[in-house]
């Protein structure tokens, strides 16, 4: 992973009638490369994320390399259905997109349905340390309800 800023913050934004939304400059800068490209990823239903291309590529390639070596060694011979399933999900999970004016995201078809937020409605942008997440507001609130009570213990565990 690159030594980029620790991405934080919560911002309400509206998706326009063409499924575009504008990121705060500091978040947009953190997830784009020099050409203005970013990786849009399906995280969980109601949530997409944006990654700096080098970070996302390194993350995926390291996992794919492990799977390839296991296939080559015959360790996954009886699990090829799972490997195919993983391949289907991996091949449709992410897409390289370019930010317009270095801060405006156009959410492509397939990702719109997964986010499940109609045009002209709000989303929540959340800095998630290593990426920026785009949340359907109801899904974000539900996640907070589940995760927030565990915050203190998780923080202590990660720093301790």
How would you explain this protein's 3D organization?
The chain has one domain (about 10-60, about 90-160): Transcriptional regulator MraZ domain (Chemotaxis protein chec), CATH 3.40.1550. A hairpin with a 2-residue loop joins strand 3 (about 35-45) and strand 4. The strands form 2 sheets. It has a 6-stranded antiparallel β-sheet. The longest helix is centred in the middle third of the chain and has 20 residues, at about 55-70. The chain has helices spanning about 25-30, 55-70, 80-95, 110-115, 135-145, 150-160, and strands at about 10-15, 20, 35-45, 45-50, 95-100, 105, 120-125, 130-135. The protein is α+β, with helices and mostly antiparallel strands and about 160 residues long. Helix content is about 40%, strand content about 25%. The two termini are about 20 Å apart. The protein is built from 6 helices and 8 strands.
Overall radius of gyration: 17 Å
The total of beta strands comes to: 8
The biggest sheet amounts to:
6 strands, antiparallel
**Fraction of residues in β-strands:** 15-25%
The CATH class label is Alpha Beta
What is the CATH topology descriptor?
Chemotaxis protein chec
Rough outline:
globular
Query: How many structural domains in the coordinates?
Result: 1
Low-confidence stretches: none
The helicity comes to 40-55%
Query: What's the mean pLDDT score?
Result: 92
Q: What would you say the CATH architecture is?
A: 3-Layer(aba) Sandwich
Structural key phrases:
six-stranded antiparallel sheet; 24% strand; Chemotaxis protein chec; 160 residues; alpha+beta
